[in-house]
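re: the backbone from monday

yeah here it is again, tokenized this time
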């Protein structure tokens, strides 16, 4: 990976908008901080990133992002501890995954220093925006899109990398009711399911709308070939507890290598929880729900952290999961958020001081 030295140009906002924000009632990703990072790829190189006041951007109507969907993103969070210090969680993993997604979408890879120095400079500038309230954080959204023009269906010759930050509360509120998908797919072998490509999410909206119309909140994605294997939960990885064993599917072409997923796996092993990374069939889960060995199901992702599933639907039948207050979901969520918010020792070395 290319490394370059740089000095990021910063143009500060004339007046902060922070006083207008109700930090006690934050939705997810709907208000943005005073600044954003912009970095252009032109003439075959990534230019030095700049930080400017948060503002709309201008694109030509023929920009390839609009037509061919060449866009990728990352999701990460900045946390503030009780001393007012700011922290990130495994940020290099996001940087590496952004470049894995870039490669798959024929987007030029971004120098790691641009990502890390840009991110930390932006966060230092907007540090006051990191909420301190329990359960809130600053959701950080790095993304790259094809800003080059032209309708030829081929990779663009110009790209824009940006980072925006949104002080945010919880992603989900209330109990999550999911529907196991029998018809639609999120991804396929050889496809882009492992990349955080914008289109992966757009493709989920219609089947999810259909599930919402039936009274569910989210879809449990199954494999495209047989719909017999459980793969992901909405935009999250999925964990299933059968008796005392925690099971999650292996990452693949179709399944995102979630940073929360792999952290949960390490924490679970450290907790002495038996863990299995293997394919899980829908029939196994239905059978476990019927015979009482299905104890917990939860989604795991940056935005929602750990999101317990209260019930699932499959072929016109609903299966409820009894609430377990001291269950794995609650225990693992506490351990990961204690590390993220600097409330506990970080024996894994995941915390990164801004
Ligand atoms: C995240 O958990 O950060 C995600 O990428 C999900 C996003 C669609 C909100």
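seq for it, each position gets an aa:
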């Amino acid at each position: 990976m290319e490394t370059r030295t740089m000095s990021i140009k910063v143009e500060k906002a004339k007046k902060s908008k922070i006083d207008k924000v109700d930090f006690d009632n934050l939705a997810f990703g709907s208000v943005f901080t005073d600044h954003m990072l912009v970095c252009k790829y032109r003439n075959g190189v990534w230019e030095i990133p700049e930080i400017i006041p948060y503002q709309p951007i201008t694109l030509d109507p023929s920009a390839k992002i609009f037509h061919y969907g060449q866009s990728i993103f990352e999701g990460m969070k900045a946390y503030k501890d009780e001393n007012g210090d700011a922290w990130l969680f495994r940020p290099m993993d996001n940087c590496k995954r952004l470049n894995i997604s870039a490669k798959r979408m024929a987007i030029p890879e971004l120098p790691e220093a641009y990502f890390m120095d840009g991110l930390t400079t932006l966060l230092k500038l907007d540090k006051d925006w990191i909420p301190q309230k329990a359960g809130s954080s600053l959701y950080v959204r790095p993304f790259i899109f094809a800003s080059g023009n032209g309708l030829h269906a081929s990779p663009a010759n110009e790209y824009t990398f940006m980072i925006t930050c949104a002080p945010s509360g919880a992603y989900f509120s209330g109990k999550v009711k999911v529907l196991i998908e029998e018809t639609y797919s999120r991804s396929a072998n050889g496809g882009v399911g492992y990349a955080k490509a914008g289109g992966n999410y757009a493709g989920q909206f219609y089947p999810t709308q259909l599930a919402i119309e039936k009274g569910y909140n989210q879809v449990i994605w199954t494999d495209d070939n047989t719909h017999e294997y459980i793969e992901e939960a909405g935009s999250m990885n999925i964990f299933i507890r059968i008796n005392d064993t925690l099971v999650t599917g292996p990452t693949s072409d179709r399944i995102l290598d979630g940073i929360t997923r792999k952290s949960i796996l390490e924490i679970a092993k450290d907790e002495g929880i038996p863990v299995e990374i293997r394919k899980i069939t829908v029939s196994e889960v239905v059978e476990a729900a019927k015979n009482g060995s299905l104890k917990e199901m939860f989604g795991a992702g940056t935005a929602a952290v750990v999101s317990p599933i209260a019930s699932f639907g499959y072929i016109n039948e609903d299966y409820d999961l009894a609430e377990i207050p001291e269950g794995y979901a609650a225990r693992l969520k506490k351990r990961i958020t204690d590390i993220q918010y600097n409330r506990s020792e970080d024996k894994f070395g995941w915390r990164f001081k801004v």
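Residues 171 and 275 are 26 Å apart (CA to CA). The chain has a mean pLDDT of 95.
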